[in-house]
Amino acid sequence: MANKSEVEVALEIYQSVEQSKDKQKRLKSSTFWDLFDVKARQKKLIDRIFQLLEDQGLRVSVKSGAPFGEEKGDDWIVLTLKLSPPAPVNPTASLVELPTAKWFETMQTRNFESEREVEAYFISPLLEELGYDYDNIVIGFPVTMFKGVQKTVTEADFVAFKGSDRDGKGALLVVEAKKSDKGISVDHISQAKSYAHELLTPCYVVTNGQQTKIYHFNGMLAPDECVMDFGRQELKDKRQELHGYISKEATLKRKEWLTSKLV
Fold it and tell me: Domain 6-81: which topology?
């Protein structure tokens, strides 16, 4: 690799990530720096390589959380395609009113004794407050999925649509509800993601009424991204951010972007 320039190495890494199934590549730190023929990690050199990868359209991170270039040799460098999705909607510029402070205070004090109560008393009013009309929201929406050649039909707890049509072109948001006494597991998140994959919704949410996780679905362009993860006591403080990510206005904007990328 010593006879290749840093730019050529960065380009080869980008091509490898772009061609991978999940648009992500992990390299041992020692292997990564060997690719660039780096013997001693000096700050200027680290910054230059980081910028080269950024310029190629890659997001660079370290699995352990250590600063890039300061990680140990057996740590992992994670390289992911960097997308340019639309920015979250600015609530102050939106025509849709934010949920009122009183509404959030009420939500923070409710007790949910079952999954159905999470759906009825938390998710349904939240979606309505975020700009989705009554005829946009379907509870128990059937989703056709395939495991190999086997066809199955299962139900997404909530799917929000652009209008009253129920095809994938208008699907904006999947929400999966769980009981308050159950934590949100990897399986719960995978379930919501599978519905988003079938319906091409730009976002999906998993909540048990106590904790809420919001994800951007990237349609195999890049790994999905958890953009919000908060507890119910933070709901009032997070209301503007919540609106920016999953209001009807925000999901419409992101749906247009995602569709344009997948065509």
Answer: Phenylalanyl-tRNA Synthetase; Chain B, domain 1 (3.30.56)
